[in-house]
């Protein structure tokens, strides 16, 4: 997909799996209700993109610019957001199961009603994260995959609240 100017095409409700979007400029792209599992968006610029109700499971957003992007009601199972910029993102009512947010910027992101289970957060910037009181925090890993430091339930929520202040 890196050779195609996708800005011209509607990608909502698309079924695009295992595709490469690395280094692409997809500002304001609409991919709501799409299935983009196992696709790669490494170093892509997706500022203001819309992934509402999208299935982005197993996708790789390493070092992507996801500022002000909407992942509301999205499925993010084993999705990689390592070192991604998710500042001001709308992550409302999303499922984050085994997602990797290591070194990601989540400043001022809204996580209201989202579910976090076994989510990697080592090195993540969490200042100003909103909606934690309404999120379903099952477990987080503040260590590494090799040396996990798992926090569960209330302990995980308390850690997140401290880090968001």
TrEMBL record:
Q: Keywords assigned by UniProt?
A: Repeat
Which Pfam families does the record match to this protein? Pentapeptide_4
Task: List, alphabetically, the Gene3D superfamilies matched.
Answer: E3 ubiquitin-protein ligase SopA
Asked if the keyword Repeat belongs to this entry, the reply reads yes
Its protein name is Pentapeptide repeat-containing protein
Originating organism: Priestia aryabhattai
């Amino acid at each position: 997909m890196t050779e195609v100017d996708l800005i011209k095409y509607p990608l909502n409700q698309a079924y695009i799996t295992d595709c490469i979007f690395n280094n692409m400029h997809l500002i304001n792209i609409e991919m709501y209700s799409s299935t983009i599992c196992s696709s790669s968006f490494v170093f892509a610029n997706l500022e203001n993109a819309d992934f509402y109700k999208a299935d982005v499971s197993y996708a790789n957003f390493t070092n992507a610019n996801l500022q002000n992007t909407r992942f509301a009601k999205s499925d993010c199972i084993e999705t990689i957001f390592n070192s991604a910029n998710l500042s001001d993102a709308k992550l409302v009512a999303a499922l984050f199961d085994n997602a990797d947010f290591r070194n990601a910027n989540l400043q001022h992101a809204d996580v209201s009603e989202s579910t976090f289970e076994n989510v990697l957060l080592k090195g993540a910037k969490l200042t100003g994260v909103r909606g934690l009181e309404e999120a379903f925090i099952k477990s987080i890993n503040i260590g590494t995959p090799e040396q996990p430091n798992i926090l569960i339930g209330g302990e995980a929520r308390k850690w997140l609240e401290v880090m968001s202040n």
